[in-house]
């Protein structure tokens, strides 16, 4: 299972990302906007994706990655079960969530982080 240390390592590697509380869980933010939350007691990470990526990850996740089962899921929030996913998969998905949430000016400020961005 992925650890908090591993998840912090991924999320905080992205430019201008910080970590702060969000109710009783942890959030990772870029430009004060949440792109991911971590709920260690429930062993899950939730990412803000667009519909295309949400569909992609839920298809490959086969039950271990799924749309948040309420209205938030319609806005792209997608849950990744920590006990069921690999580091590389979460790293890729978290980078996508960071890119989708980052201000557009980051494309010029941090071109290396967007060089293979398909969106």
Q: What value does the average pLDDT take?
A: 95
- Cα(first) to Cα(last) distance is 30 Å
What's the main sheet like? 6 strands, antiparallel
Helix content: 25-40%
How large is the share of residues in beta strands? 25-35%
Sequence of secondary-structure elements: HEEEEHEHEHHH
Question: How are the strands of the largest sheet arranged?
Answer: 1-2-3-4-6-5
Radius of gyration: 13 Å
Question: If helices are DSSP runs of H or I spanning 4 or more residues, what is the number of helices?
Answer: 6
The low-pLDDT segments are none
Structural class call reads alpha+beta
Number of strands: 6
The shape is: globular
């Amino acid at each position: 299972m992925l650890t908090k240390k591993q998840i912090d390592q991924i999320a905080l590697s992205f430019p201008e990302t910080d970590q702060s509380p969000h109710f009783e869980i942890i959030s990772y933010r870029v430009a004060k906007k949440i792109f991911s939350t971590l709920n260690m007691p429930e062993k899950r990470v939730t990412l803000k994706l667009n519909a295309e990526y949400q569909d992609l990850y839920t298809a490959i996740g086969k039950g271990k990655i799924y749309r948040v089962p309420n209205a938030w899921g319609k806005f792209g929030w997608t849950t990744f079960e920590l006990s069921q996913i690999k580091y590389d998969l979460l790293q890729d998905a978290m980078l996508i969530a960071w890119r989708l949430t980052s201000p557009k000016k980051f494309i010029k400020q941090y071109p290396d982080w967007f060089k293979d961005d398909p969106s």
